């Protein structure tokens, strides 16, 4: 199994094969064109930026800036692009790029970045993961430019997110699409938000949410088998990053070992450039209409790098067991209408109302 850094490099090199020589945009490996409304190109630019930061190879910076310029052209014509324009994802990527590159940008490049950043729009979806993206993006923009309205927006969006955590620690995404994947993604964003605004309630909500998912990790390392986005690498990489962030916050190696456990399950999927853990790849079983390989591989590559960096910077302080996965356990989760039963050698997850809860 590849290391997180080597796997991210492998994904970056693979995606670079599909970067347009003409426009600089990432062409989706399956569709062979840039999916303009989605976030694959923006996250590819961010992945290349992070690889440049780690490897100090100029070709990664060149790839990143070419993809960024292509993204700016998309933003200018967004009114004419079909489909839901994924503003919050794109904004996240551009803000992170700017933070990483700002000291190396030319005057013209800095002007281009800042014009976009100061004129960003939002999809404003009510889903919790979108609210958390807006909270993080606003707080990061406040950190970069100290605009009071961004601090206020972050506070409002964060309060909305925290209000959607139940007593068990689960973050519901919306009334029809509760899922373990988007819970994991909210956790990853909370982990990134906390250093910008280190409130105790954020840390507590984050760790409670991480601990909520621990009983769902089965013997193979899988946990992402319930709700929208089940078996998709988006959820696995999000939780991988969240677990290593919990390790960083607490110094507890239990979280690091849990991250290694789920890595054994999903790293081989990414090594084969797949985005869903499905035996039927040709027919894209488990894919949703909005899924595409360019988005999810770019996202996965970047979040693996984040997790790898956090892991390397953390000093172990304790080895305290959070959840004993070899002991009998059964629990009913009201928010999910779900019952979890596990013994040392098996796990059964039952329930879910018809429809999107238990797709």
Q: Which helices and strands appear, and what pairs or packs with what?
A:
Elements: H1 4-16, H2 40-55, H3 58-76, H4 87-101, H5 107-118, H6 128-145, H7 148-162, H8 180-193, H9 200-213, H10 233-250, H11 253-271, H12 293-312, E1 329-333, E2 338-343, E3 346-351
- What does the overall shape look like? globular
Mean pLDDT: 94
What would you report as the Rg, rounded to the nearest angstrom? Answer: 20 Å
Tally of helical segments: 12
DSSP strand count:
3
Which percent range fits the helix content?
40-55%
Instruction: List low-confidence stretches.
Output: 354-359
Major beta sheet, strand line-up: 1-2-3
- Beta-strand percentage? under 5%
Largest sheet: 3 strands, antiparallel
Q: Which structural category fits the helices and strands?
A: mainly alpha
What series of H and E elements makes up the topology? HHHHHHHHHHHHEEE
Distance between the termini: 30 Å
Written description of the protein model:
This protein is mostly helical. The protein has helices at 4-16, 40-55, 58-76, 87-101, 107-118, 128-145, 148-162, 180-193, 200-213, 233-250, 253-271, 293-312, and strands at residues 329-333, 338-343, 346-351. Helix 10 (233-250) runs parallel beside helix 12 (293-312).
């Amino acid at each position: 199994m590849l290391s997180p850094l080597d796997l991210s490099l492998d994904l970056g090199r693979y995606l670079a094969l599909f970067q347009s020589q003409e426009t600089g945009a990432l062409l989706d490996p399956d569709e062979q064109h840039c999916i303009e409304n989605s976030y694959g190109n923006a996250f590819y630019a961010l992945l290349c930026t992070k690889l440049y930061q780690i490897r100090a190879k100029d070709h990664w910076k060149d790839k990143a800036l070419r993809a960024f310029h292509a993204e700016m052209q998309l933003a200018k014509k967004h009114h004419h692009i079909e489909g839901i324009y994924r503003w919050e994802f794109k904004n996240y990527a551009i803000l992170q790029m700017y933070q990483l590159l700002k000291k190396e940008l030319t005057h013209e490049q800095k002007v281009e970045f800042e014009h976009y950043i100061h004129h960003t729009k939002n999809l404003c979806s009510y889903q919790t993961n979108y609210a958390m993206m807006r909270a993080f993006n606003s707080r990061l923009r406040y950190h970069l430019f100290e605009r009071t309205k961004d601090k206020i927006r972050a506070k409002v969006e964060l309060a909305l997110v925290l209000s959607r955590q139940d007593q068990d620690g689960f973050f519901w995404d919306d009334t029809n699409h509760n899922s373990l994947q988007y819970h994991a993604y909210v956790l990853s964003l909370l982990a990134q938000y906390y250093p910008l605004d280190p409130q105790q309630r954020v840390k507590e909500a984050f760790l409670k949410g991480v601990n909520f998912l621990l009983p769902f990790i089965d013997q193979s390392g899988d946990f992402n088998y319930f709700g929208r986005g089940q078996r998709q690498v988006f959820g696995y990489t999000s939780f991988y990053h969240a677990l290593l962030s919990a390790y960083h916050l607490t110094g507890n190696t239990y979280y690091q070992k849990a991250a290694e456990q789920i890595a054994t399950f999903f790293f081989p999927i990414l090594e084969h450039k797949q985005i869903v853990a499905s035996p039927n790849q040709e027919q894209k079983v488990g894919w949703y209409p909005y899924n595409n390989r360019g988005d999810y591989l770019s996202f996965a590559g970047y979040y693996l790098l984040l997790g790898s960096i956090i892991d390397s910077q953390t000093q172990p302080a304790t080895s305290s067991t959070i959840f004993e996965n070899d002991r009998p356990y059964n629990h009913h989760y009201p928010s999910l209408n779900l019952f979890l039963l596990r013994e040392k050698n098996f796990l059964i997850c039952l329930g879910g109302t018809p429809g999107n809860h238990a797709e």
